[in-house]
Automatic annotation (TrEMBL):
Transmembrane segments: none annotated. This is Phage gp6-like head-tail connector protein. It holds the Pfam family Phage_connect_1. It comes from Megasphaera cerevisiae DSM 20462. NCBIfam families: put_DNA_pack (TIGR01560).
Length: 100
């Protein structure tokens, strides 16, 4: 997945490059987080994985302040993220992460 795909999902104009490094680091963190939570290897062309990454990045990007101004518990992931992570963890279609 490319930064431009996430920027489109976040509705950030392509010519706005100030947050590209942040978005890339959030994407990398999302892949690592999902792999660590599920024990499954990232599948680059898998729609479920990519939706989960987009949702995580959007959540982290929108909630990056230490003192949230929005009501509610922002430390919890939206239900859709949690459901996708559980699906990836339980689905036999995804290969297990191998360590060298």
């Amino acid at each position: 997945m490319e930064v431009d795909a996430i920027k489109t999902y976040l509705r950030i104009d392509d010519d706005m490059v100030d947050d590209d490094e942040l978005i890339q680091s959030l994407m990398d963190a999302a892949v690592e987080y999902i792999q660590n939570q599920t024990g499954k290897q990232y599948a680059k062309d898998d729609n479920v994985w990519n939706v989960c990454i987009r949702l995580l990045v959007a959540h982290w990007y929108s909630n990056r302040t230490l003192n949230p101004t929005k009501p509610g518990n922002l430390s919890e992931f939206p239900h859709s993220v949690t459901a996708l992570i559980h699906h990836i963890a339980l689905c036999q279609s995804y290969p297990v992460v191998t360590t060298s």
